[in-house]
Amino acid sequence: MRYLTDRKRAVGKGASGSGTEHFWWMTMSSVALAFLVPAFIFVFGHAIGMDQAQLQAYFARPFPAILTALVTIVGMRHFAKGAQVMLEDYTQGSLRKGLVIFVYSLSWLISALVLYALAKMMFLAAAAQQITN
């Protein structure tokens, strides 16, 4: 029989060992997304209907590029952590591990693709600007 004091039971952030940290990450990321997503919708909506050259020049500007990168990174991390919680609640064993790995891989793949596209648009816009000068 183990004799644990109330303090000993409280040390370790709960049964999972990281529950409080996970809760605060999800809370902070959801608040950040509450501000970032409306701004992103405005920026993205402004870009609808542009041709390719205008779109590259638009997303080569700092504000749209940084906002898009922030929404992607914070959004995909929020998605991965939220999906992980859902999968841990409703699946078991090897299937759980495989699905969590798949979700994290998918979120990192989407983040990498968006950041690559932004970098390529910035590079192409800079090259087009250099050619015209």
TrEMBL record:
Principal location: membrane
Compartments where located: Membrane
Pathway given in the UniProt record: Carbohydrate metabolism; tricarboxylic acid cycle
Cross-referenced InterPro entries: SQR/QFR_C/D, Succ_DH_anchor, SuccDH_FuR_B_TM-su
Any Gene Ontology CC annotation: membrane
Top-rank taxon: Bacteria
Membrane topology designation: Multi-pass membrane protein
Necessary cofactors: heme
TM helices/strands, residue ranges: 23-46, 58-79, 99-119
Swiss-Prot/TrEMBL GO biological process terms: tricarboxylic acid cycle
Pfam families from the UniProt entry: Sdh_cyt
Keywords attached to this entry: Electron transport, Heme, Iron, Membrane, Metal-binding, Oxidoreductase, Transmembrane, Transmembrane helix, Transport, Tricarboxylic acid cycle
SUPFAM superfamilies: Fumarate reductase respiratory complex transmembrane subunits (SSF81343)
Molecular function as annotated in GO: heme binding; metal ion binding; oxidoreductase activity
Quaternary context: Part of an enzyme complex containing four subunits: a flavoprotein, an iron-sulfur protein, plus two membrane-anchoring proteins, SdhC and SdhD.
Protein role: Membrane-anchoring subunit of succinate dehydrogenase (SDH).
UniProt-recorded name of the protein: Succinate dehydrogenase hydrophobic membrane anchor subunit
Origin organism lineage: Bacteria, Pseudomonadati, Pseudomonadota, Alphaproteobacteria, Rhodobacterales
